[in-house]
Amino acid sequence: MKKFFSRSASRFSAAAFQRSAKFAKFTEFDARELSRIVGPNGILTDPNDTTPYSTDWTRQFQGATAAVLKPKSTAEVAAILRHCNDRNLAVVPQGGNTGLVGGGVPLFDEIVLSTSRMNEIRAIDATTGIVVCEAGCVLERLDARLAEHGYAAPVDLGSRGSCQIGGNVATNAGGTRLVRYGSLRGTVLGLEVVKADGTVLDFMTSLRKDNTGFDLKQLFIGSEGTLGVITGVSFLAVQRSVTVDVAYLACSSFNDAIEVYRRSRRRLGEVLSACEFMDGEAMRLVNTHLGLENPFLGRPNYPFYVLVETAGSAGSNSSSQLETFLEDLFEEKLVCDGILAADGRQATALWALRERIAEALRIDGYVHKYDLSLPLSQLYELVEAMRKRTGGIAKSVVGYGHLGDGNLHLNLTSDENSEQLANVIEPFVYEWTASRRGSVSAEHGLGLMKAHCISYSKSPEAIQMMMDLKRMLDPKGILNPYKTLPMY
Amino acid sequence: MKKFFSRSASRFSAAAFQRSAKFAKFTEFDARELSRIVGPNGILTDPNDTTPYSTDWTRQFQGATAAVLKPKSTAEVAAILRHCNDRNLAVVPQGGNTGLVGGGVPLFDEIVLSTSRMNEIRAIDATTGIVVCEAGCVLERLDARLAEHGYAAPVDLGSRGSCQIGGNVATNAGGTRLVRYGSLRGTVLGLEVVKADGTVLDFMTSLRKDNTGFDLKQLFIGSEGTLGVITGVSFLAVQRSVTVDVAYLACSSFNDAIEVYRRSRRRLGEVLSACEFMDGEAMRLVNTHLGLENPFLGRPNYPFYVLVETAGSAGSNSSSQLETFLEDLFEEKLVCDGILAADGRQATALWALRERIAEALRIDGYVHKYDLSLPLSQLYELVEAMRKRTGGIAKSVVGYGHLGDGNLHLNLTSDENSEQLANVIEPFVYEWTASRRGSVSAEHGLGLMKAHCISYSKSPEAIQMMMDLKRMLDPKGILNPYKTLPMY
Predict the structure, then answer these.
(1) Do B172 and B264 fall into the same domain?
(2) Backbone angles phi, psi at B92, to 5 degrees
(3) Residues of A in contact with B458 (CB under 8 A)
(4) Mutation site for B-interface testing, chosen from A197, A199, A207 by largest number of B Cβ within 10 Å
(5) Cβ neighbours of A324 in B, within 8 Å
(6) Which residues of B touch A461 (CB under 8 A)?
């Protein structure tokens, strides 16, 4: 039975914020001028049509929009922004709307600028793997096109079927392949960006190396649409692996899980392609709510599970490397139980246990989601501290994430959206993280949800510099207001 | 016989530039105040002592300095900059002084701020490979320390024995491992930077992931000391490989060399750790000037050579992968000749052929150096065009570089520093590169040498944005003047 909690008042709805008086109201004149730019099929104003763009899939963020614009080219994006900047109309750039912090959702009446109709792959260089494409290309489709040339996208996420590459870059999306291919900051080669005033910034080099001056495109990677709208991306695709193997392991302590990671890095080195963990609570939820079978059926629910994936080129022995590695882990009793997927179907089933946790949580109740970077040795202590702290108030307290990146996804559920629970969690969770010099947003970004938390992870000097940059690039502040930098 | 051409007038000496009147002259008062900060052993003013800091190893850049300062801490760097900013004294940050474009060399009387006494490794996390260290750590020493924990630095350069990690980051150094581990933009996790006015910017996170706001540290990576002085670095070390194999191949055409690269990427995938090329002219020079033996002694000097290196973890079969790959290349006649190093000594000898080309060039004559990114298919056309164009004027015209990165090192020599040759090369070489949407500086940076060439690779909007950033971070322009952004 699915429950979506769409009727509970959200802490992130318009009611909790104040609309800035500096922005103009959308008028008939604007509708006419903007239709002229994008054509009659490129604009939606009927709330029945616009609701999917002003609500996110977690249902945590429910705003409103005066109009959704769907330009087909960079020139159209530039014309839209020129108009909006002149008229002081606020704009929210939106990709696949799969973010988890409300970064792409309008709040009051901001215009949504959707890149979904900009989905052309401009070029794939078969020799170098350098790809040039529009921002609206859906990750999964892009990856399928790259597969034809023996390449793969350098980023992969559970939302691959709807997220867009432009949104991935704008939020510096992490995902499960980061441990192998690094962040988008290393693999993105060029960007085409439109500034708030409509100026097109052409950083669209498709060279692997370019040291002529400052790397300006980096400012826009991870800036959540607050500094400019990304319309084009060039990136370096990675060689597609031929032999992919997945092992699923059970550990009796988090320390053992860390040790499994440490050894996997040493022993599997260049063929390690993922190292994920989930706790027994997460397993219970995917079993209960999604009917996914525990691979160790009949055994006790272990406290920790680790998913290790290896991926190698055609001639590599990555499969036998993984097997030998697993034998040694058993011998040294670092794992209590383990399974090696015999085929692709089994591998997919094991991955589903990890990738569908978010879905199971949504069924479990109203979800309080936290995405934190912490020193590995202390990472799970927070989940335990939280369990103690919220005993009797929270329904489930779940920890999972990217072990290799020190990235914890901490989730707490309750039957209804509970202000009491929220107050027990925050600011404690952020203070705890800050005191360990962790990050209050490892990969999701700040968006609307955590904009007010920036000081936990950034110094006053850094925040000042961010404000100076915002002022330099978007002096009227029309791009994605209320997000990332709330004080601007 | 070594000739250093130190007496030829350089195109990059003070005589060719105009000292900016906005900077104050260094006085007794400054000497006294600055000594107070760094102590009597931390300041050099005698030209006999300062010359090594105002000249680079290529001898192309010969400037002068009023004083060399060697702070021992970030607090000292901050105090120095506060003084210099108040007094309008220009400052050149300097690491190992191994750059090739004069970015770290003072021109008139700028104060040199050397990071050489800031060489402490603050922490190495054995589990994650995350390193925190001071800017002045010499790359080779740092790498040796990492080796003790099974890790390696993510960057490697011929100048590893003297270059410093802070300088590597400030110039976004590329090198031979980029094809495997990507650029420093992906592997640097945090920076500590001192702004021109002495403000310390603490971006010193040592987390693999942090998406809380803009990634400000990226502005300083590759900014050649014009926006701030890097005093601390945290980065992700890479797993040290256990099996390393080097093959050296001869090809009859550049197209065949490209095909070798393309296949090496496909077939060797994750174990490919370098793919370098050099032409027959480069081979002739290392044979003649350095007495290095051509590994195919007795055969004709082939037009192209490709060095392929694989590196794998303990259990990997990277050696046999390389062998099978080489057999197939021979079978398909993509290579005319080839050798696989039997041991570490032979591997080092093969690497020397590629790494010591710069040294051989310096003996050959006065060197005109260019470092370009080009589309791979057109990369060698430029060397051929240049040979035709400079026939009878240039002594040697040599092409080599990082095949996997589309990075050509084009070098031309003459017996004396020849203005005539310089005029035949430039601006042609930059125009040719720009017309192919290449980069006029792939990895060396702009420095003093190419500051005036920025427009070939950057749009007016990008240059304007760089100027705005410079103004924001260093309003008086005291940091590394005349470099990177000459118009500021």
Answers:
(1) no
(2) -110, 110
(3) 212-213
(4) A207
(5) 315
(6) 199-202
**Closest partner CB to A444 (pick from B206, B211, B269):** B211
Classify residue A162: in a domain, yes or no: yes
Tokens at B205, concatenated = 């996170």
CA distance B393 to B424: 9
Q: How many domains does chain B have?
A: 3
B207 & B264 share domain = no
Q: Do B406 and A316 touch (CB under 8 A)?
A: no
Residues B317 and B345 reside in one and the same domain: yes
Confidence tier at B10 by pLDDT (50, 70, 90): low
Let me know whether A300 and A391 are in one domain. no
The residue assigned the tokens 């609500």 is A55
- Split at pLDDT 50, 70, 90, the class of B264 is very high
Interface of B with A in 55-94 (CB under 8 A): none
Rounded (10°) angle between helices A381-389 and A428-435:
150
Supply the ipTM of this predicted assembly: 0.94
* C-alpha triplet A118, A123, A125: angle, nearest 5°: 150
What domain range includes position A399?
A: 365-453
Residues A346 and A408 in one domain: no
CATH of the domain at B404: 3.30.70.2740
- pTM for the whole structure: 0.95
Look at residue B1 and tell me whether its pLDDT is greater than 90.
no
- Residue A481 lies inside a defined structural domain of this protein: no
| B contact residues 394-413, partner A, Cβ 8 Å cutoff | 402, 404-407
**Which residues of chain A have a CB within 8 Å of the CB of B315?**
267-268, 317, 320-321, 324-325
B178 touches chain A (CB under 8 A): yes
Q: Do A171 and A213 fall within a single domain?
A: yes
Question: Rounded to whole angstroms, how far apart are CA atoms B443 and B435?
Answer: 19
pLDDT band with cut points at 50, 70 and 90 for residue B57: confident
Residues B167 and B221 in one domain: yes
A261 vs B: CB within 8 A: yes
The amino acid at residue B8 is S
Low-confidence ranges of chain A (pLDDT < 50): 1-9
- A63 lies in some domain: no
In the predicted structure, residue B475 carries a pLDDT above the cut 70: yes
In-domain check, residue A48: no
Q: Decide: residue A437, CB within 10 A, 0-12 exposed, 13-18 middle, 19+ buried.
A: middle
Residue A308 is part of a domain; what is its CATH number? 3.30.70.2190
